[in-house]
């Protein structure tokens, strides 16, 4: 939960190139669709609603969008960004272009607990006294993180072990063992949010729990203006990593698919994501993501073949991103995410009765369930 937030390697469904870094420039300009979504500046989405990309230096995602909502004499902020000096400067410049200073921020509504969304929120609270609000489902993960006080991806290492990727787990453990932990980054919020309408001042937002990316992820729905502040739940170019957190997530992919379906039960809205440009239809993108995971489940089932395989072995049979990158060509961090994603997909296949699993020496091994003898027909789809 505390590492650099990077999307899982198989989930680049647009072919967008990752690896470039936001330049951290503090120059603020009004942009109308020119340049990259991650370029420094401020975009007015609706009167009184503004998107501000904040830099993520060294991170493949390049930037994280925060949103500034003018509400009376103050500003309500959606997500806080990563607590970095260059991020603070970009936020200050964006606020100044609207005629405000940072002290105008009264509340920060965070979508989930990953550091590129949460840590600057608590830093701004210390500086300004702004209230920080977070989905109640994030409480177990945040409290666990504060107890163990480590940057190491503890839950991910457990998943790697269960997936049979023991050498990879050891490499990740060594790489993350020396990371510093700052307790101030992970202070508790002022309020834990449940589902329902939140009155801010002149504005109201509906808080919608959307578990999957994390257990307590929420989106904020502005029904009056047909806007969805989607965090990492629905992204226009990529799909989020699944269950990348400390709290035991159960079946995070199944949760995520249900949360995607939930988006289609509300009236359609413009999609205001945490990474990527504002787009026209939340419903359309949710449908694309559901189709993507259906195809990925089918590919995962086919990769099982006739044998009994670990998630690590299945991941090595799959290719990753739309460029079909072999597993061996991924770096260790993205191999970790790939194995975790494969576990999530295999567990959904087991829950659907399309595979069975048995544990051998601490490793889960999966076998496809077929309704006819091998070679007599296609592998059943999800």
Structure description:
The protein has 382 residues and is of the alpha+beta class. It folds into 2 domains: 282 residues, Ribonuclease Z/Hydroxyacylglutathione hydrolase-like (Metallo-beta-lactamase, Chain A, 4-Layer Sandwich), CATH 3.60.15; 67 residues, no CATH class. Helix content is 31%, strand content 21%. Helix 4 packs across helix 9. The longest helix is centred in the last third of the chain and has 23 residues. The chain starts with 42 loop residues before the first strand and ends in a 14-residue tail after the last strand. The N terminus and C terminus are likely disordered.
Summarize the structure.
By secondary structure, the protein is α+β, with helices and mostly antiparallel strands. It has 9 helices and 17 strands.
Question: Would you spell out the secondary-structure blueprint of this structure?
Answer:
Blueprint: E1 43-46, E2 49-55, E3 63-71, E4 74-78, H1 85-97, E5 105-110, H2 115-128, E6 131-135, H3 139-148, H4 154-162, H5 166-176, E7 191-193, E8 196-199, E9 204-209, E10 218-222, E11 227-231, H6 252-263, E12 270-273, H7 282-304, E13 308-310, H8 311-317, E14 319-320, E15 325-326, H9 332-351, E16 355-360, E17 363-368
Parallel strand pairs: 4-5, 5-6, 6-7, 11-12
Antiparallel strand pairs: 1-2, 2-3, 3-4, 8-9, 9-10, 10-11, 13-17, 14-15, 16-17
């Amino acid at each position: 939960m505390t590492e650099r937030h990077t999307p899982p390697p198989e989930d680049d469904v647009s072919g967008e190139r990752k690896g470039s870094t936001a330049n951290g420039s503090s120059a603020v300009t009004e942009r109308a669709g020119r340049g990259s979504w991650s370029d420094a500046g401020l975009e007015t989405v609706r009167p009184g609603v503004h998107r501000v990309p904040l830099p993520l230096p060294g991170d493949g995602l390049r930037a994280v969008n925060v949103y500034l909502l003018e509400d009376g004499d103050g500003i309500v902020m959606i997500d806080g960004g990563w607590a970095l000096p260059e991020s603070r400067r970009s936020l200050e410049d964006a606020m100044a272009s609207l005629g405000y200073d940072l002290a105008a921020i009264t509340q920060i509504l965070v979508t989930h607990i990953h550091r590129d969304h949460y840590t600057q929120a608590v830093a701004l609270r210390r500086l300004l006294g702004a209230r920080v609000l977070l989905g109640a489902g994030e409480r177990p993960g945040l409290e666990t993180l504060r107890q163990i006080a480590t940057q190491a991806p503890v839950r991910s290492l457990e998943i790697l072990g269960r997936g049979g990727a023991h050498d990879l787990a050891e490499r990740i453990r060594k790489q993350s063992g020396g990371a510093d932990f700052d307790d101030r980054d992970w202070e508790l919020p002022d309020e834990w949010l449940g589902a329902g309408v939140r009155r801010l001042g002149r504005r109201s937002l509906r808080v919608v729990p959307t578990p999957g990316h994390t257990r307590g992820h929420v989106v904020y729905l502005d029904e009056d203006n047909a806007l969805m502040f989607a965090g990492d739940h629905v992204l226009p170019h990529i799909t989020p990593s699944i269950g990348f957190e400390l709290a035991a997530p159960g079946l995070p992919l199944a949760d995520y698919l249900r949360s995607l379906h939930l988006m289609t039960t509300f009236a359609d809205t413009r999609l205001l994501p945490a990474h990527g440009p504002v787009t026209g239809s939340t419903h359309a993108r949710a449908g694309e993501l559901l189709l993507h995971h259906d195809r990925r489940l089918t590919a995962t089932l086919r990769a099982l073949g006739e044998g009994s395989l670990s998630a690590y072995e299945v991941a090595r049979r799959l290719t990753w991103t739309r460029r079909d990158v072999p597993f061996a060509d991924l770096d260790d961090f993205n191999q970790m995410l790939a194995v975790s994603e494969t576990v999530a997909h295999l567990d959904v296949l087991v829950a659907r009765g399309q595979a069975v699993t048995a544990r051998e020496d601490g490793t889960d091994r999966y076998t496809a369930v077929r309704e006819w003898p091998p070679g007599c027909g296609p592998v059943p789809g999800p």
